[in-house]
Amino acid sequence: MKNSLDVIINPASIVVIGASDRVGSVGYAVFHNILDGDFKGRLYPVNNKRSKIQNIKSYPSILDIDKEIDLAIIVVPSSMVEEIVGECAAKGVKGIIIISAGFKETGKKGEIREERIKKTVKDNNIKMLGPNCLGLINTSESISLNASFGAFMPEKGNIAFISQSGALCVAVLDYARGNNIGFSKFISYGNKADVNEIDLLRFLKDDAETKVILMYLENISDSNAFIRICNEIILEKNKPIIAFKSGSSEAGAKAVSSHTGSLAGSDSLYDAIFKQAGVIRAKEIKDLFNNAVAFSYQKSPRNDKIAIVTNAGGPGIIATDAAIKNRLQLAELSEKTKDDLRKVLPAQASINNPIDLIGDATHERYKDALDIIMGDDEVGAAIVILTPQYMIDPAKTAMVIPPIVNKYSKPVLCSFMGGKDISEGVRFLIENNIPNYLFPENAVKTISSMCKFNHIGSYLKSNYKQFGVIREDADKIIKDKLRDTDKYFMSPEESEEILKIYGFPLLRSRLVTSRSEIDKAVTYVGFPLVMKISSHDIIHKTDADCVALNVSTLKKAYEVYDNILGNAKAFNPDANVQGVFFQEMAKDGIEVILGGSRDELLGSFCMFGLGGIFVEIFKDISFMSVPLKVSDAEYMVHSTKAYQLLSGARGHKPSDISAIIDCILQLSELMDNHPEIVELDLNPIIVYEDKCGCVVADSRIILSK
């Protein structure tokens, strides 16, 4: 079955509109690259000023070509693009690449021009890549297409690279050429006015020539769709996806009133999306390719236990420290392995992991030691470190490694450290698909990524949990609140109406609007109780001295009622006060926070962390994109430092973590069902000992149309 992007990525015929004979122009480079790349289909240049382009017959317009055209590549000034796209639509072209810049990236005028082009391609069922992109490269032997203005055609490989940035693509191509990295597909999608990263992932999922997918992202078009397609690629095709996301600064975090909203920096949200998608996030561009070559050329580690082989103690210690930091284990070698090592190594060598062959090690010593170590069942992968000492021949040492890798089918990554002295050995390693890293830490980080990928599948296979909620009941409440306003701040008692529908554990409570209601409220709620102001205009009640704890007598309740109203008036004379909220006094426990927020670009998220007044001080929080699977909720709790406290640190009894996880999943369902909820805080939720549950002690919800 054909993919809709075949007309762009696997075209049978191409026209380059704006093809040129002028060396140095983009029109020249694109047309020359297609010719030079030995494209297997039909190729036509369009230039209304020349009869031939690069010795190929040229046409004044695409409408003058009497053959069907799959793909039109447009390389003309932005002011002409709209007209050209109209001609492509009239011709019946089904695929367009707009390399030209000058659209929404330049401001409002360019954005309007881009919107008109989007409408044309949508109305005519045309798939469009760009505008403002480098183009694409398909190294498949059946296509052999370099439809880009990159300087050369890369080597064929099994790595696909897709990127929003065309300029970065040029640098990546040059880097790949110098490091013997080949590609299956190389695609720049620019402004993604039509085809976006999700469309490209759907194509690459079924691309038999792609084993590893790399991405450079500036944003994500649809977080839920992104998560779904990445899950499919990993679970169905077992293809690793590695992404670098630019713009990780928290400077763009929104100024909002809730704890959840104020803590929801964009980078935290992207971390959550990548986790749920199963994507390995590269913190630096070089990590993309450090990971890519290992996934591309090496088998998966059999476990998370590594062996380190070195001829220098210092680098061995560096690698060990990096392994611990990256949550790897040093393999515990068997007694047989140690005995075998003693037979081939000098007495001064270390036979414990890391294995130090000492400075006078030769390639034979490396060969004997690595062969023995890789045969140990406890060893899942190995890192071979070499420093260029006088006694060692790096080239000969490199030659002993590939046969051992093939023999045991376990990954081996190398760190031949240095420059000129080790260059011949490094060249041999790369030519034989053994990744080499200049420093041991990079090799360790890469092995760690490979081990993480082994666990991603089981994480992604987790299920969703439903709670039998009657969604319509909450819909009605929300609709009523937003009937006459675009934004509504729900009071705690209003919030509890919705929380009850979703099954959250709540304390007994009642809103008191006059002194005459106090007796009935106390009878219902019981002593001891909490009293707090109910006002949309007083968000942080403690700051206004509008909260009283442990009220134990009726006389005290009357006194506190009057004080709270007086303090509210003093704090904000214009505040609209609904009354005083009487609530059951919760038993002592550990306070945590749950929150929800909606990001305009990325959708709705849930947040978990240490609660009460400490949430914004310690910021020990985690985020996940809605909807959450059970594994996502578990990860939210386990990934925080609060988990140590909840699981029974320093002699404390374990808390009811399962109750917290249920609350997180209930919150996920609530946020997923009702996009009108833009911010939500359940702070604190008080958690009790294991099997004793938890209660929501305070809540607030902000609604928006």
Q: Summed up, what is this model?
A:
The chain is built from 24 helices and 30 strands. The chain is an alpha/beta fold. Helix 11 runs parallel beside helix 16 (440-460).
What's the structural blueprint in terms of helices and strands?
Blueprint: H1 6-9, E1 13-17, H2 26-36, E2 42-46, E3 52-53, E4 56-57, E5 71-74, H3 78-91, E6 95-98, H4 108-123, E7 127-129, E8 135-138, E9 145-148, E10 156-163, H5 166-178, E11 183-188, H6 197-205, E12 212-217, H7 223-237, E13 241-245, H8 259-263, H9 266-277, E14 280-281, H10 285-297, E15 305-310, H11 313-325, E16 329-330, H12 335-344, E17 355-356, H13 363-374, E18 381-386, H14 394-408, E19 412-416, H15 423-431, H16 440-460, H17 471-481, E20 487-490, H18 492-501, E21 509-512, H19 518-525, E22 529-535, E23 547-551, H20 554-571, E24 577-584, E25 590-599, E26 603-610, H21 615-618, E27 621-625, H22 630-638, H23 642-646, H24 657-673, E28 677-687, E29 694-696, E30 699-704
Parallel strand pairs: 1-2, 1-5, 5-6, 6-7, 10-11, 10-12, 12-13, 13-14, 15-16, 15-17, 15-18, 18-19
Antiparallel strand pairs: 3-4, 8-9, 8-11, 20-30, 21-24, 22-23, 22-24, 25-26, 25-28, 26-27, 28-29, 28-30
Structural write-up:
With 705 residues, the chain is of the alpha/beta class. Among the domains are: 299-460, Rossmann fold; 508-585, Dna Ligase, domain 1, CATH 3.30.1490; 590-704, ATP-grasp fold, B domain (D-amino Acid Aminotransferase, Chain A, domain 1, 2-Layer Sandwich). The chain has a seven-stranded mixed beta sheet, sandwiched between helices. Strands 20, 25, 26, 27, 28, 29 and 30 form a seven-stranded antiparallel beta sheet that branches. Helix 14 (394-408) runs parallel beside helix 15 (423-431). The two termini are 41 Å apart.
